[in-house]
Amino acid sequence: MSDLIVDLFAGPGGWGHALHVLGVRDVGLEWDEWACKTRAAAAQTTIRTNVALYPVRPFVGRTRGLIASPPCQAWSMAGKRLGLIDRPLVHQAVADLAAGRDTRELLLTACQDQRSLLAAEPMRYLHALHQAGEPEWVLMEEVPDVAPLWKQYAVVLRSWGFSTWSGILNAADYGVPQTRRRAILIASRTRTAAPPEPTHAKFSEPETFFGPGRRTWVSMAEALGWGRTDGPVPTVCAGGGPGGGPEPFPSGSRKTLSDARDRGAWKNPPLHPRNPKAEPPCSCTEESPRTPRCGGGRDWVLRSNSQANAAIRPVTEPPATLFFGNRANECVWTTTGPAETAPPAIRITAEEAGILQSFPPAYPWQGNKGQRFSQIGNAVPPLFAAHLIAPHVERTLTRNDFVLAA
């Protein structure tokens, strides 16, 4: 068996960048033109193809690991969720493919959303590879509503001799500055399948006899470097709609945000790990605890979309799951307090969104603003992916392998 790692629905390289950090490479299968261009710019091997049509034969006898993150649009809270209606058909497709029967064409005609059936595609690859005793391990990721399907995969894989685990994990528990919950399937022929040990928690934990406790979730301010004094903070002029249209905010609005950041006007800004003394001025003392207005400025927050029930998080917390792809799902920086004196809302930049997905600031996103945001929102956070992959490629992930702020 070779060390080939096949990455189905590879996107712009979330799994691929994680493998690169760990010193391993994948072969990604992806259809989206701009995601493929991003992967190419990141020096990731890619086959531009429809995963549902590509033959498995070229990978048989060569594959060590199989990764799959099928498109989530049919299942996501950000869409119409027709995948929930189609779920019985997807379960049927998985059962048929596991038995060597290809009924996809027939089942597809009954689907409300043709993308639903893509969640069954990994089983076509797994069945063909299994005939050659491959792969050694499997990792799959999707939105939480796909968890029952991963349980079905797990049952099949256990019958083929794999150890399996499936469940819901929160990317924030692994250092990603985003409370992104995902259904995960882990399977292995050579080790007991189990989720990686969390490194972070909502509240930090003290050191014990068994070692250091988990660190506090990484906040937006910490990830973006706001409050630091040891170097530049990544800022890019905001603007453009999903299609890359004109700047929607008044001139200077991005400067309003950066000025507030530079003078330390963030609510309870966290200390940056590389510069513990980089705390903005504060009039509070040990006897007088911090207040929401600590730092003398407004409380900046990130609003996840334009809906009435949008998640709103202060910069001292990680954001909720980032959704992009249409105007209703655009994230904006805004402030609390009286609306009449509030500065204008400022759309998050692609660079900032990428960092909050744990991509490096200089990741080479390709395409216009809308295409970049779409890639970012659909990507697997590389830091989260690295924690999942590391045990299966005999690598140890260290605290310094991912540096979020520039």
Automatic annotation (TrEMBL):
Keyword S-adenosyl-L-methionine attached: yes
Gene Ontology biological-process entries = DNA restriction-modification system; methylation; negative regulation of gene expression via chromosomal CpG island methylation
| Molecular function terms from GO | DNA (cytosine-5-)-methyltransferase activity; DNA binding
The record places the active site at 72
Q: Which Pfam families match?
A: DNA_methylase (PF00145)
> What PROSITE patterns does the database record attribute to this sequence?
SAM_MT_C5
Matches recorded under InterPro entries = C5-Methyltransferase (IPR050390), C5_MeTfrase (IPR001525), SAM-dependent_MTases_sf (IPR029063)
Task: Provide the protein name.
Answer: DNA (cytosine-5-)-methyltransferase
Residue ranges with Basic and acidic residues bias: 256-265
Output the lineage of the source organism.
Bacteria, Bacillati, Actinomycetota, Actinomycetes, Kitasatosporales
- What family is this? Belongs to the class I-like SAM-binding methyltransferase superfamily. C5-methyltransferase family.
EC numbers, comma separated: 2.1.1.37
- Region of interest called Disordered, as start-end residue ranges on this chain: 239-298
The UniProt keyword set, sorted, is: Methyltransferase, Restriction system, S-adenosyl-L-methionine, Transferase
Keyword Lipid biosynthesis attached: no
